[in-house]
Task: structure prediction
Amino acid sequence: MIRFEHVTKRYADGTTAVDDLSFEVGEGELVTLVGPSGCGKTTTMKMVNRLIEPTSGRIFLDGDDISDIDPVQLRRRIGYVIQQVGLFPHKTVLDNTATVPHLLGVKRAKARERAAELLDLVGLDPSVYGERYPEQLSGGQRQRVGVARALAADPPVLLMDEPFGAVDPVVREHLQNEFLRLQQAVRKTVLFVTHDIEEAVRLGDRIAVYGHGRIEQFDTPSTVLGAPATEYVADFVGADRGLKRLSVTPIEEGDLEQPPVVHLDDTLPKELDARWAVVLDGENNLHGWISTEHARVGTGTVREHARRMEAWLPVGASLKQAFSTMLQHDAGWIAVIDENSEGRFLGVLTPARLHEALRRSTAADALAIARDEVELESVASVTGS
Ligand SMILES: Nc1ncnc2c1ncn2[C@@H]1O[C@H](COP(=O)(O)OP(=O)(O)OP(=O)(O)O)[C@@H](O)[C@H]1O
Result:
């Protein structure tokens, strides 16, 4: 969708901001450009909408050489979100969001209708915020209006330059999550500039780690964290990259352990081959758990003795969420369910299995194979001991 071919940008004072850059961003892909200040990220981005012209090389958008496209026409195909969103102070939030479609000839009422939908999509209730002016919003809310406005003309491509850079870390994480949810729905081709490696690995389908004017590594977040291509990248991603990998490694079904399972209407099991069993309802959905000790001395059915299970996650959630859920509930294991089939129970993740999943995914990235093809020495079963 966006292709850079040997692009170099040298400024008039002789600074080479971008040096012989070649890479491609696929349709619907979100690529983060990350690197220290002054390494050429913004220059790269601004060449895509021709705010900056390259010194040499070519850039293609959907197969078209952008130097052949009139800049105004080009920018209609590209949404642009920057850190200081640059909302019109004298226009309401709704009118700010509707500006571009209105300029493009959409009738005002229709443009405002669409703007209201977009505000809703970015998590701002239009009936509450639509008639406010930008100064009556928080920094995070202004950023959301910026995103809604960039989406208003429904461009296939979004350029985002540190869009969440000016808000505090808590709001930032919130905006990142919302943006990921939004991107799942709209699937734009996105080039996203940040200097924050955490943000880059969280958001990017792939990340381009910049050195000075050059890309040092261009790969998936888990590969960049698990197998940094150069010492520079290893330094940049940090000594705690193993920990960061937790947030980009999803729980897979093959990571799970299968503990004993009982159903709500079963009579209390007297001989359990573990310290506890998972309790399921008639549809095999997760209900809770029961301890062996409790079952041995009790009477009646499982239903009367089962404890509810708070520590659970859907398959596909990150290992970091799994770890944090274990800590939050002081749980030695968490249940994993399939949200796509109404919460069917899939198995449990224990700390040992979590560690194994992380080792497996690191090895899989290094060997370029699927995680379940990796052979590891088996880990001791916690539930069986
Ligand atoms: N108009 C200009 N004239 C001369 N040099 C420039 C100009 N704009 C940028 N540069 C230089 O080009 C290099 C790359 O700048 P760029 O803004 O692309 O970096 P960046 O990675 O986006 O940095 P930051 O994270 O600080 O925004 C820097 O050394 C910068 O000083």
Q: What stands out?
A: The pocket of adenosine-5'-triphosphate is lined by residues 11, 13, 15, 17, 35, 37-43, 195 (CB under 6 Å).
